[in-house]
Write a structure and sequence with these properties.
Layout lengths: L1 H22 L18 H14 L2 H7 E8 L5 E3 H13 L9 E17 L13 E14 L5 E15 L2 E9 L12 H6 L3
Parallel strand pairs: 1-6
Antiparallel strand pairs: 1-2, 3-4, 4-5, 5-6
Length: about 200
């Protein structure tokens, strides 16, 4: 009888363990933007751009850049695809640049379109030779938290974004920076924020 009771107790313990294992199964990750899914239009591409900044997602940022991407900065500064991607990697990984400055957080405060997307015409001085492209001016706000300091570099102003659409594939082809510096107000241009790491 005692032996039978021990077997019954053991069987009940096994059932409890199996039940606990089943209850502890981790829930699936919440759905989010899928790297494999192409942006359906230029607006969605811009949303992915903001998301990549906010989450410091290098892979997603790389995914939306055109292979011939150009960032046209202030004072004749320009970054090509690899240079711009390298700067973004520094931003996201907290690697120090000029004067030991590193960013520990990036927040998109604003990315608001001004007017509609417009087809890029041949008389565009920078991207006029790019086929199947549209452009739109955006009001831009980025907050860049400097690591180890109570200091946030604020990028504010406008930038013109160029998106190519080829066989349904949308890629960021270029940006013309129109933001401005005002160091007294902790405002830096987008160009200056990139130059820290170049």
């Amino acid at each position: 009888m005692f032996h039978l009771m021990r077997l019954l107790a053991l069987a009940l313990a096994c059932v409890a363990v199996l039940s606990a294992c089943s209850d502890n199964t981790a829930p699936p990750d919440p759905p989010g933007p899928d790297l494999i899914t192409e942006p359906v239009d230029a607006d969605e591409l811009m949303a992915v751009l903001a998301f990549a900044h906010d989450t410091r997602d290098i892979a997603r940022y790389r995914f939306i850049l055109h292979s011939d991407y150009r960032f046209i900065g202030l004072q004749a500064v320009e970054f090509d695809h690899d240079q711009d991607l390298g700067v973004f990697e520094y931003w996201c990984q907290g690697i120090a640049g000029e004067q030991g400055i590193a960013f520990e957080d990036i927040t998109t405060v604003e990315m608001t379109g001004v007017g509609p997307w417009q087809a890029v015409t041949a008389d565009d001085p920078v991207f006029g030779d790019v086929a199947d492209a549209v452009s739109r001016t955006y009001q831009l706000g980025l907050d860049l938290q400097v690591a180890g300091q109570q200091l946030i570099y604020q990028v504010r102003g406008q930038a013109v974004f160029y998106v190519t659409i080829t066989d349904g594939v949308h890629r960021l082809r270029g940006v013309i920076d129109q933001t401005q510096d005002n160091r007294a107000a902790e405002r830096v241009s987008w160009t200056a924020a990139k130059m820290i790491f170049y």
